[in-house]
Amino acid sequence: MNVPFAIPDLGNQEIQEVISVIKSGWLTTASRCKQFEENFAKYVGAKHALAVNSATAALHLGVESMGADPDTAVLVPTFTFTSTAEVVRYFDAEPIFVDCEPDTFCISSDLIEQAYDHYKANNLPAKKIKIMIPVHFGGHPCEMNDIVALAKKYGLKIIEDAAHAIPTRYAAAESLQESNQIEGKLIGNTGDITCFSFYANKTMTTGEGGMLCTDNDDIAKRVQVMRLHGISRDVWDRFETGASWEYDIVAPGYKYNMPDISAAIGIHQLKKVEQFRDQRQKIAQIYFDELKNIPGLILPRLKCPKEFHSWYLFMVLINPEASKNGLTRDDLITELSKRNIGTSVHYKPLHRMSYYKNRYKLKPEMFPNAEWVFQRCVSLPMFSAMKENQLEYVIESIKEILL
């Protein structure tokens, strides 16, 4: 049997919508994109949703809209994909790396404040911290109550990296749950900007694509212009029959627009996203039930209700000191690969990557939690189209290897 790490869950509705776009003769950004944006904004409760061709593009546009420049520093996790930090470097700004929590793998207000204080105390270098980018890792929500409070304390802007988090719901700290208004609310508009990914292996997909959400009219206007070459008008407005050709370039923008073929897929994926999440949670629950009490295997430890989690990832940890014959994370990956079971590692921390390690003189001991997690983590197959016999095969294989 073959079990991939992840595959998209596409149906006839997506196929027919794409065919309709092809038959229309207009393949790039137009009515489907506009419809997708309107549907997405309504779904997450944001005033504006702006479709782009990747979550990286959304993050880049978000950082640009906040005026990042070479005098800017931005707080980012070390335990994340490179795009979270690389968009900071596009402006010759400096990322300040933050350790993760050992259970949720997210950053917390305490860890952010530690990194902030260390940076200020050591003046490394003398740049103004203006922005923070928390990542809702694997679909688990960051504790945004405390993070928002910290941002207000220091006058920082928040760009939420929600590439893993559709649909994830905010979870307040236990002491704040009864009175807090964000408890159970979909991620989408608590920070200044929220960026989503629709890459092929995400919880919903457009093949390639992303979305930037904001309630700020000025940010939305800037992003709308900058996502397409800095042109003052949307391209589909200029090329409609009878429309004026006139336009202006108001800034040196980028080529980040989402084509209608992608949006056509997204329209129908969004309609199914809650169904996809429910199916992922069922798979997660079976993993929890069947893999508990296995020596050396640490299952996800949540600080939110299971129904708040998007379950983009089901990431487990392997503790060699407690596993059979000292089996390591890499040993488990190798053995599962022999059985044609796909896995992944999320992520090799950025402080281990040559560019960041060398430029900022980063050492593993500076990020003890991320190091501890990285050396043990492996993501198991998780996708909404996963068949029962595939799930059973993965579970039985893990038991065979670890028991």
From TrEMBL:
Its GO biological process annotations read: polysaccharide biosynthetic process
What EC number(s) are associated with this protein in UniProt? 2.6.1.1
Query: What does the UniProt keyword field contain?
Result: Aminotransferase, Pyridoxal phosphate, Transferase
Q: What class of enzyme is it?
A: transferase
InterPro entries tied to this protein: DegT/StrS_aminotransferase, PyrdxlP-dep_Trfase, PyrdxlP-dep_Trfase_major, PyrdxlP-dep_Trfase_small
Q: What is this protein called?
A: ArnB: predicted UDP-4-amino-4-deoxy-L-arabinose--oxoglutarate aminotransferase
Q: Name one GO molecular function term.
A: L-aspartate:2-oxoglutarate aminotransferase activity
Look up and give the organism this protein is from: Desulfobacula toluolica (strain DSM 7467 / Tol2)
For this chain, the family text in UniProt reads: Belongs to the DegT/DnrJ/EryC1 family.
Active site as annotated: 202
Instruction: Establish whether keyword rRNA-binding is in the entry.
Output: no
Instruction: Write down which residues bear the modification named N6-(pyridoxal phosphate)lysine.
Output: 202
Kindly give the CDD domains that the UniProt entry links to this protein. AHBA_syn
User: Per its UniProt record, what Pfam families does this chain match?
Assistant: DegT_DnrJ_EryC1
